[in-house]
Every structure is written in C-alpha cells, then in structure tokens.
Amino acid sequence: MSSSVLQNLVNQPYRHGFVTDIDADVVPKGLSEDVIRLISKKKAEPEWLLEFRLRAYRHWLTMREPTWPNVKYPKIDFQDISYYSAPKAKQKLASMDEVDPELRRTFEKLGVPLHEQKALAGVAVDVIFDSVSVTTTYKQRLAEVGIVFCSFSEAVRDHPELVRKYLGSVVPPGDNFYAALNSAVFTDGSFCYIPKGVRCPMELSTYFRINTQESGQFERTLIVAEDRSYVSYLEGCTAPKFDTNQLHAAVVELVALDNAEIKYSTVQNWYAGDENGVGGIYNFVTKRGLCKGVNSKISWTQIETGSAITWKYPSCVLLGDNAVGEFYSVALTNHHQQADTGTKMVHIGRNTRSTILSKGISAGYANNSYRGLVKIGAKAANARNYSQCDSMLIGDRCGANTFPYIQVNNSSARVEHEASTSKIGEDQLFYFAQRGIGAEEAVSMIINGFCREVFTQLPMEFAVEATKLLGLKLEGSVG
Amino acid sequence: MMPGESLLEVRGLTASVAGVEILKGIDLNVRAGEVHAIMGPNGSGKSTFAKVLAGHPAYEVTSGEVLFEGKNLFDLTPEERARAGLFLGFQYPVEIPGVTNLSFLRLAYNTVQGARGKDELDPLEFDDYLQDKLKLLHIDPAFLERSVNEGFSGGEKKRNEILQMAILEPTLALLDETDSGLDIDALRIVANGVNRLRSPGNALVLVTHYQRLLNYLTPEFVHVMDQGRIIKTGGKELALELESRGYDWVSAEYRALRAA
To answer: Which of A147, A225, A340, B48 is 20 to 30 A from B246 in CA distance terms?
Structure first.
C-alpha cells in the first residue's frame, strides 16, 4: 500500500500551466550577430551595450556546454530557440491601467495583481512576461527615497552610467557558457539601486513568466546596494505546460558596498515537466553576489520546486573585511526532475563568514544533487564557514548526492561541513497512520519540519507561500 | 463500550510477509474491561499479530476474520483503525526528525478527536490537557520540544508511546514489549500510568516476554504463542509458571495434544 500512497502523494497538479493568447512580437529562431543586433535595435540600446553583447557572443562561440553537472538531457540546439518574444503593445504605457487586459488577467490568475491598489501591501513588483518587463509597481513611492527600481531596459535608458559601471562586474560576460549566452542575448530583467544610507521601505520583487513555447527567457537582474543600505528582494517564476523544453538562462548580479545588506529570496516554480519527464523548463542560471565593502552581507534564500532541470549556484564573493555570505536552500525534485544546485562561498577578505544550509528533497524518480564550493583565500585570515547539507528521500527510486568542495589556503580558517540523509519510509508513515494521521498530512509535516530552518529565513508572505507550494507539490489523492 | 461487551474477535487469522506465512490461524476474543497478555518465544509471531491488527502495510492477511466492536477491521485503513480507537504501542518507535513531539501529539489528538465528532483543541487548551498526562507519566515538559523520538533513550521512547496512549484514549491498546528497555523505576511509572488509563469500557493486550510487567497489570488471560498460533491459554498463574519453567513444556504439551 505504502509505495502507491507515496506515488499518489507526489502526483501533484501544476496550477500555473495555462497559456495566454496574446499577439507577440517574436524574432525568428536562431542565433547570430545579426539577431543580436536586431534585439539591440528593437530595444534602442546604446552602442556600448551592443558591443558588450557582441563581445559576449564571440566569447560564447569559443565555449562548450558544461558537462560536469550531475544531470542528463539531450543536447540543446541553440539555433532552434527564439531569442526574443514580447507581447505587442499598442503604444507606450502611461499607467498600469493601460496594460493589456489579457496580460493583466494572466497575472491576476497567477496571484500577481498589477494594480498597486490590489497588489500585496508592502511589495513592489517588476513583472516580466517572456522577454520584456510589463510593468513595475510602486516606482513613484520608491523614487521618493531615491531608490531606483525598474525594468532593465528602462535602467539602460534612464541610468546608463550605473548600468555601465556594474553590468558584468560580478558575473563577467565570459564567466561560463550560459552566462556568456545570457550576456549576448538578454532581453530584460530588473534593476535596483539603493542609495547610501537608505533602508528600502518595502520588499522588492520580480515575477517572471514564460509564455511562448519556442522562446527562451534570458533576463538579467542587477542590484546595487550603496553604503549602509538594505534591501530585501523576492523573485517568483512560473511557466505554461508545454511538451517541449524551454531554456531559461538568467544572470543575477548583486553588489553590496560598505555596511550594506542584500537579502535575495527566490520561490522557483517553473513548469517541471509531466510525470513521465516530458516538457519543463531548463533552468540554467548564474547568480552571484559581491560583498565588495567592509561589513557587507548578502543572503540567498531559495525554494526550488520547479524546472525539469535546475543548474544554479547562487554564490557570494566575500571581498570586504568582515563580510558575511549566507545560502539557505530547499530544493524539491519529483517525477523525473533533476537538480544540481548549491553555492560558492569565496572568502577573500579577513574575518569573513559564511553559512550554507541546504535541504534537498527527492521523490519519484528524481535526482537531487548539492554541489558547493567553499574557498578560503590566502589573505582571508580568520575566515569561517559552516555548511550543513541534508537530503531527504521519499520512496526508493529517487536519488540524492552531495558534492562539497573545500579549498583552504589560510591556516587560521575554520571550516565545518555536516551532511545527513534521511528517508520517509513505510515505517514512518505507518507510525503517523497508527496515530490517526493520514499519509498526506504526515508527509507535509515531515517536509515542513525538515525545511523549517530555511523557511524562517524567508520574508513572511513568502514563507506562507513556500509552505503552501511544497504542500501542493506533494498533494494528491490517497489510496 | 459496556463492560463485558466484545471488543475484538479474531477468527482463524493467517498472515504472511514477503510470501512467508507468519500467522497460521489465530483465534482470540477480547472483551471490554479485560487485560490479556500474549507471551511466547522470540519469532513466535507476537509482534506480527499486533502489527497486522494495526494494519502495517508489509503484512498480507491471507485468511480469517477480525471484528473490532462488531465491524470488519480489515475494511478500515490503518489511520481509520487508529481513529476508531485501536492503539499500537510500538516495540521500536521510529524517529521523526524536525517534527516536534508537541506538534505531533496535537495533530494526532485533533485528528482523532475530529474523527470522533469531538471538538479539537487549540494550542493553549491542548497544553492544559497535556500537563495532566505528563504528570501521570512523570515526563519533563522540555521533552515536548524535542523531535519525535529523535535521540530518545529506549526508556524515553517507551514512555512517549504511553503518553500518546494517554492522549488518544483508545478503546483497545496493544502494547508491544512496552516493558523491554525500561529500568525498574521506569517500568513502575509506565505500568502505573497504564493502570490509571484502564476503565471498564476499554481493554489491553500486552505482548511481553516477562512476568514483571504483569505484577503491575494483572491479566485475566495469558496466551502462549508459538510458530504463529496460540497454543495455550490460561489465567495469570500461567505467566508465573512460564517464568519458572520456560516455554518448551507448553510446546510439547501442544504437540502431544495434536497427535492425540
């Protein structure tokens, strides 16, 4: 009985799998310098940005797809992807009310109302649909305290000096295969700048939606926190159900200057493919934060529940003395999902500290790997790292792996690594059942207990969301 | 349940695990208000019998019938059996990391209460309810904040089983070697706790190797199991006899009886 109960439990519906019927301006499939020039022209970009793209593209041509992740998928044909898809806007929008009603309905259905009146109180949202930003809420209110929060395209137009200074400063265009591809073809994303001494009064958030079947999504997020500033940033993502795979190759760069703090949280719920592993998003993302200033701090919190394949390592480069890097992660894989995710903590400054807390959950036939690098540089005196990687298996056909890499070049460093693997088995479920508790509630209770330390790192609204999402992912009819 | 009314009727029960037959035809009647002890050598099928009644998925019932309060027990899922008042005190309680004992106990209590059409308790009310039960078993409240059974000593695990029994108030409790792993003081506390939970409307089935538990919980019936069958039933004095003479003579007597 028990194995079939578990099977039913992990057969969950995906509730964001619908497609919006909307006229889109789609660039024909294929990638070349001409396509890049076309994208740049469509976006009326300055020459330096086109140069940035072309340099990245030329570098990309010399690179090979990484094969070291512990994931399997057929070779991607990069000429079979459309690199730009934008809903056709009739004219430039003057206010939220002019957003295409079809789009507005889409986001309302996804629980992301575009009206500020209806929006979550205290959360400003930049909404990205395929390749472009649809709208950004609360822009005015944020501007009053000097915060810039807008789409990447607007930032290029209105704050070119900031974009030019920081773009590629954390993730250089040639950093890795997918970062290079993104640098060549990225279309939009979010930009956020917190001036000196400002504590951002609300959560900032980007909601990513892929809608077109044959386009990839390549967005770019850049957050700069000046001295003594603070920002908490949230990211959410969904996509329709298609029986083909869509590529999502984003780059996120964070820069924290002296005494600044950035908290970056993600609830990733891309379509994961069906129970046989058909369709779903390939989520190949480069996220990196630079703790440039003294006493700066960057925290990554991620709840990864979607995507057919996840390949991402939100990292911290701890350059400033006393800088702090944190990584809190829950990665849930089900059916035939594969995840190879973790972090890199690179200690360069003195007295730098990092914490890694990773919780991997595998169900069905899924394969879940934690891969993490802790590197202590020669000058990072008294650097400290604590890592804990816990894996949980649901059923007996899934897998979990941990690949910790530790490089220490300073003898005053202290590095600790702990790992554990547990299993929700027949005997645990029977124990709950014997106390009157059904399998669904039992699994949800065990999972929530397992993830608790990570959930407490999320902003309140997201913590509730994340708990519900994991429940949903493991929901199903019992028996 | 009224005293003397039939709670559990087992007729010709056979069950197997992985194709190997473990229970080879068990008959047993338990009435409200009674205490039964099931004794017997290791591997005789005592624990299997308890787990089959509770509905452990690893065991397959191959024939026979079990009525619980007059209803077919095998029509119920394991959780429905628990909600209906059947409780199994585990010989080896599993650990559940990350889930606090308190939240586990409250969820179990509220689920069972809900199924019985009674009011659920909010966390504060539940805490009041719990305090008395903790005192009954001399349990430190700090124990509630720990993960279920994780890092518990053998004795703590067994005490936790009886705490759950005290909270869920079952009609029929099957206690599978609850006495093993307990020192003399802990045994007295646990046994006294169980004694106080007895009422004319409920019943106890104790699976045990030792007479010492029966000093506190006096059984009306002592059954000896061997090779998947109950081969002898007697009164409480049978337990004393087993303690001094072992099991071999019972098996010999049974074989002789069968041959005759």
So the answer is: B48
Return the sign of the alpha-carbon dihedral for residues A152, A16, A138, A146.
Answer: negative
The domain tally of chain B equals 1
Residue B1 in domain: no
Query: Looking at CA atoms only, how far is residue A303 from chain B in angstroms?
Result: 18
Classify residue B212 by burial, with Cβ atoms within 10 Å: 0-12, 13-18, 19+: middle
In a domain, B217, yes or no: yes
From CA A315, how far away is CA A102, in angstroms rounded?
37
CA distance B231 to chain A (A): 29
pLDDT at A116 over 60: no
pLDDT at A6 over 50: no
Distance from CA of B163 to the nearest CA of A (A): 12
Alpha-carbon distance of A256 to A291, in angstroms, equals 5
Report CB contact under 8 Å: A436, B108. yes
Q: A434 to chain B, minimum CA–CA distance in Å?
A: 5
Tell me which chain B residues have a C-beta less than 8 angstroms from the C-beta of A435: 82, 104, 108, 111-112, 164, 168
Q: Which of A426, A431, A433 sits opposite B93 (nearest CB)?
A: A431
Supply A152's token pair: 């990447």
Mutate to test the interface with A, among B73, B99, B165 (most CBs of A within 10 A): B99
Q: What is the mean pLDDT of residues A456-466?
A: 71
Whether A133 has a pLDDT exceeding 70, the answer reads no
Tokens standing for residue B15 = 């069950």
pLDDT score at B147: 92
- Integer Cα distance of A192 and A202 in angstroms: 13
Give the C-alpha separation, B16 to A76, whole Å. Answer: 51
d(CA B56, CA B47): 11
Q: What was the pLDDT predicted at A478?
A: 28
E-only strand ranges, A377-472: 384-394, 399-408, 414-424
Confidence of residue A5 (pLDDT cuts 50, 70, 90): very low
Which of A388, A393, A420, A430 should we substitute to test contact with B (largest number of B Cβ atoms within 10 Å)? A430
Q: What is the pLDDT of residues A349-403, one digit of tens each?
A: 999 999 999 999 888 888 899 999 999 999 999 999 999 999 998 878 888 999 9
Q: For position B43, which CATH number holds?
A: 3.40.50.300
Using a CB-CB distance cutoff of 8 angstroms, which residues of chain B are in contact with residue A450? 97-98
Q: Is B20 within a domain?
A: yes
How many Å is the maximal CA-CA distance in chain A? 69
pLDDT(A96) > 60: no
Amino acid found at A354: S
Region of A21 (left: φ > 0; alpha: ψ -120 to 50; beta: rest) is beta
Of B78, B99, B104, the CB nearest to A433: B78
Cβ atoms of A284 and A176 within 8 Å: the answer is: no
Amino acid at position B162, single letter: I
Mean pLDDT confidence for B54-58 = 94
Residue B67 domain boundaries:
6-259
Contacting A with CB below 8 Å, chain B residues are: 54-58, 77-79, 81-83, 87-88, 90, 93-94, 96-100, 103-104, 107-108, 111-112, 115, 147, 164, 168
What's the CA gap between A77 and A29, in Å, rounded? 11
Binned at pLDDT 50, 70 and 90, residue B228 comes out as very high
Residue B22 lies in a domain: yes
pLDDT of A479:
24
Sheet holding B20-31, edge to edge: B20-31, B6-17, B59-68, B71-72
Mean predicted lDDT score pLDDT of chain B: 93
Region A44-65: mean pLDDT is 95
